[in-house]
Design brief:
165 residues; alpha+beta; 2 domains; four-stranded mixed beta sheet; 6 helices; 6 strands; elongated
């Protein structure tokens, strides 16, 4: 079971195990907002509700320079598994400016691509192929990208994640 941790201002911070969440609650650093009462955690001193959402009692400052690291899975997720050239189902990624010509592994240069388009394009730019990009590659933004595990959100989390989207 996973637990959503909210900052004191109700913005999502992280997803932790329910054990870590209980430790934060027991040490009075957090308060349970939503819990799974059907599956309590039993201890020598009694039973605790298994936390689903907790909120920290003090505000934690988040560095403004937080960015999402580039990954193959992230590029496919950002582009909705759609090829940036033909719109088909993407199963690989492509460098818009090929690496052999100085293209970097960055959010602005990587795009989801189907195998057919990737093989046709090869070591050329889309302009040389006469192709247009269906979307401009950009870095992803929002709490859903900064917090790992939000893509498999529990129903209890919806009301806390919706304002962040």
């Amino acid at each position: 079971m996973r637990t959503l941790v909210l900052n004191a201002g109700y913005e999502p911070l992280a997803i932790v195990s329910f054990k870590r969440a209980l430790v934060l609650v027991m040490n009075q650093k957090a308060t349970i907002i939503a819990a799974d009462a059907d599956h309590p955690v039993w201890a020598a001193a009694g039973a605790w509700d298994r936390p689903s959402v907790i909120i920290l009692r003090t505000y934690v400052r988040i560095p403004s320079g937080r960015h999402v690291p580039v990954s193959r899975r992230g590029v496919l997720r950002r582009d909705n598994n759609r090829c940036g050239y033909c719109g088909g189902t993407a199963n690989t990624i492509d460098h818009v400016m090929p690496r052999s010509r100085g293209g970097k592994d960055s959010w602005e240069n990587l795009m989801a691509c189907c195998l057919r388009c990737n093989n046709l394009k090869g070591d050329r730019t889309p302009a040389e192929m006469g192709w247009n990009l269906r979307m401009t590659p950009r870095p992803p933004h929002g709490h859903g990208w900064l917090i790992r595990g939000v893509e498999r959100a529990l129903p209890d989390w919806e009301e806390y994640l919706a304002p962040a989207a």
